[in-house]
Amino acid sequence: MPLWFRWDGQAVWMCTGAGSATVRNLREEPRVRLALPDTSDVVLLEGEAECHPAPEVPKEAADAFAGKFGWDPRTEQAPYVYLRVVPRTVRAWCGTRELRGRVVMREGVWLD
């Protein structure tokens, strides 16, 4: 599911409706794989998603999300959930289909 995202230096933050299939699925199985930002310059991030109801999300994360997108899900009448994914593995492509050394993080540790 395409979602707006914000990288805070340690985790990816996203937000979607509390009743969405995405939230239901992540609560049942939190392991995720995110492909960012497009098909020719992909960063593939693997980790586990944490669900934070909008009223309980850390203020600095929600403020930064609202600042980036000009939309604050905390002000919506319908309930929203923020999703936080801390990467365990990161692979990167730079317009190259087969690239050696594309794993840049393993088990949560950045590789040199």
Q: Quick one: biggest sheet?
A: 7 strands, antiparallel
N to C succession of SSEs: EEHEEHEEE
Strand content: 35-45%
| Contiguous runs where pLDDT drops below 50 for at least 5 residues | none
Distance between the termini: 31 Å
Query: What is the rounded Rg?
Result: 15 Å
Number of helices: 2
| Shape call | globular
Average pLDDT figure: 89
The helicity comes to 10-25%
DSSP summary, beta strand count? 7
Structural class: alpha+beta
Walk me through this protein's architecture.
- The chain has helices at 21-28, 59-69, and strands spanning 5-7, 12-17, 31-37, 42-53, 80-92, 103-106, 109-110.
- By secondary structure, it is an alpha+beta fold.
- Strands 1, 2, 3, 4, 5, 6 and 7 form a seven-stranded antiparallel sheet that branches.
- The radius of gyration is 15 Å and the shape is globular.
- The model has no long low-confidence stretch (mean pLDDT 89).
Characteristics of this structure?
seven-stranded antiparallel β-sheet, 112 residues
Please summarize what this structure is:
17% of the residues lie in helices and 42% in strands.
Q: What is the topology?
A:
Blueprint lengths: L4 E3 L4 E6 L3 H8 L2 E7 L4 E12 L5 H11 L10 E13 L10 E4 L2 E2 L2
Antiparallel strand pairs: 1-2, 2-5, 3-4, 4-5, 5-6, 6-7
